Amino acid sequence: MAGIVIALPKRIYVSACLICCVYAFNMTNKFATLNLKKTLIGFYSMQYCVSLCAGFLEHLSTHNYYSRGFMGVTQYRRYALTGGIGSGKSTVARMFRDLGAVIIDADAISRELMDPGQEVLARTVNLFGESVLNADGTLNRARLAERIFAHDAERKKLNAIVHPKVRARASEIVDDAVNSPNFSGIIIDDIPLLVETQRAAEFDAVIAVQTDLPIRLERLSKYRNMSYAEAQARISAQATDQQRADIARWVITNNGSREDTQAQVQKVWNELRAEV
């Protein structure tokens, strides 16, 4: 059964606490008409209730909860995983998935939304024209990439079409995850453009994957058949490693062997598990 994620802005929690304070003040005034002993008892009782309420609301504001019926509640943590093109972020995401994390892959969702017949593809064609389509009606991703990475304005327009739909699909994945009997309590959103979309504050913490530039260029040339000039242009169009590191609690360096990267992922995973 679908549930509701409790994720209200902190200002709402603060407002609720202020309302409680006003209520306590009014109750104290009522107790003031009684004798001193009863007044003190009433005052400290109200003070305790307000403190208890404030603490509970603060706990809600710093944790994610998912309601599954009248009494069924699942607590979870949600993190963002980010890294530039060619950094090996997808490999790191698979490692976290193997350890038990629920991975929300923004790139995979975006590709799904661009399938023939999807609203997002239709709106993309309306924006860029049929030149971004192959003869069979599927999206020519390379042609679209050439256009958006060369023009910031067009890239922003495309993001405005795609990103809201990606978030909606991600919410559906969260619904499915928390209803799973084997849910680990950890959800990791794989978001390449986390810095660019300014979404870091939506998550409990950020994990960044970094790889030295020569290695990234080599990977893009070898596995994606890009020229070095094209690969460099794609990298330059994204946020820098320093910008990602600035918003991250953990930075995984993916320059060495798979075993070395796996060891770093395991260390981060142990810390994530300790927070749930």
Keywords, separated by commas or semicolons:
disordered N terminus, 3 domains, Rossmann fold, 276 residues, seven-stranded mixed sheet, alpha/beta, Dephospho-CoA kinase
Explain this structure to me?
The chain is of the alpha/beta class. The chain folds into 3 domains: 11-62, no CATH class; 76-101 and 185-275, P-loop containing nucleotide triphosphate hydrolases (Rossmann fold), CATH 3.40.50.300; 106-183, 3-Layer(aba) Sandwich (Rossmann fold), CATH 3.40.50.300. It is 59% helix and 13% strand. The protein is built from 12 helices and 7 strands. Strands 1, 2, 3, 4, 5, 6 and 7 form a 7-stranded mixed beta sheet that branches. A hairpin with a 5-residue loop joins strand 2 (64-67) and strand 3. Helix 3 packs across helix 12, helix 4 (106-113) crosses helix 7 and helix 6 (141-150) crosses helix 7 (152-178). The two termini are 23 Å apart. Mean pLDDT is 82; it is low at 1-13 and 65-71.
List the topology elements.
Elements: E1 4-6, H1 10-31, H2 36-61, E2 64-67, E3 73-83, H3 89-99, E4 102-105, H4 106-113, H5 119-128, H6 141-150, H7 152-178, E5 186-190, H8 194-197, E6 205-210, H9 213-223, H10 228-236, H11 241-247, E7 250-253, H12 258-275
Parallel strand pairs: 3-5, 3-6, 4-5, 6-7
Antiparallel strand pairs: 1-2, 2-3
Helix pairs in contact: 1-2, 3-12, 4-7, 5-7, 6-7
Separation of the first and last Cα atoms: 23 Å
Give the SSE string.
Answer: EHHEEHEHHHHEHEHHHEH
CA gyration radius, whole angstroms: 24 Å
Looking at the structure, the CATH topology of the largest domain is Rossmann fold
Pathway: Cofactor biosynthesis; coenzyme A biosynthesis; CoA from (R)-pantothenate: step 5/5
Binding site for ATP: 86-91
Keywords: ATP-binding, Coenzyme A biosynthesis, Cytoplasm, Kinase, Membrane, Nucleotide-binding, Transferase, Transmembrane, Transmembrane helix
Enzyme class: transferase
